[in-house]
Every structure is written in C-alpha cells, then in structure tokens.
Predict the 3D structure of the following.
Amino acid sequence: MKRKRVLKVIGLALGIIVFAILCFIAYGYYMFNTSLIPENEPFTHSSHYINPDEALLNDGFKICNEDYIAQYYNTQELPYPNGKNNFRKYIISSFENRNYSDSGYLNIRFIINCEGETGRFIIQSNDLDLNPKPFNTDLKNQLFKLTSEATSWKSTVIREKNRDAYMYVSYRIENGEITEIIP
C-alpha cells in the first residue's frame, strides 16, 4: 500500500517536472521565433546599413560588393588615415570653435570602399545622455567637412582581400570643444 502511494507521488512529481519543461520550451520557442519579429515594419537590413538614398556624398561613390560590407573592426588596425593620433591632430588643428556652446556626441557614419575611398555619410547627434539632439549647423558642417575631406583611409582587409567596410567617427563635444574622438 505504501509502495503504491510512493510510486504515485513520484509519478506525479515527474509529470509536473516534464510539464514545466515543456512549458519552458514552448515559451522559449514563442519568444525567439514569433514575438520578437516586427509585424508592421520588418527589418530589411542589418543595423549598420546606410541607405544610399539618404546618405550624403553618395554621387559617384562605388561600393565594390554591395552584398558584403564588413565592419571596420574586422581588421587588425583601425582604418584612420596615417593612424588615429595623426587623424586626431588633423581634426584638432583644423577645427575652429566659433563660440559654439553645444555639448554631446556628433556621430558621422560612412563607408570606406575596397579602394580606400569614403562615401555614404550619415550624421547623427545626441546630447551627453545619448538622447537625440540637434547641434549647431555650422559646427556639424565643419566636422562633417573635416571628416569627409580626410584622405588615405585604409580599406578593411579580410582573408587577404580589400573589402568595403562601415566606419564611424564619434566626436565628444563639451561646450563647443572636442574632448574625445571615438573609436
């Protein structure tokens, strides 16, 4: 009698455990395969995609392989012209603070093609808390001009082949002065 009762309790416990595991698997399947997929505006590109129709300085800019654009960090060294320190010196020495009072991050995203040419620029600006914020137009144009006119960018090399790559330069600005250039 006791033996039957013990077997019933063990069977009931195993049944509850199996049921809980099946519920967990079903919930995981739902979360990863259906609930996180946008219904109204599904993603058609990866997050780093730059739409050529919205980009600046896109006329005449050629991508070597539209289907495969890597990230700048896929190579051993950063693609800055003459190294990051020289790029920083170039920006700091050329930048003129015209009584700007802006503070935040000015992000300039672009593509370096397999030949080291730049194009498809996008400019985004945020305050120091990373909330979208418009910057002084002259400040924005000056940094865009300095960044886009820099020459000798290095293309990304993957498996001994020059590749197109997404790149960004983020300027941290405090009271109109550049305090940091990222990355």
About this structure: The longest helix spans residues 2-35. Strands lie at 70-71, 104-112, 118-126, 156-158, 161-163, 165-174, 177-182. The chain has a mean pLDDT of 84. The chain has two domains: 1-42, 70-182.
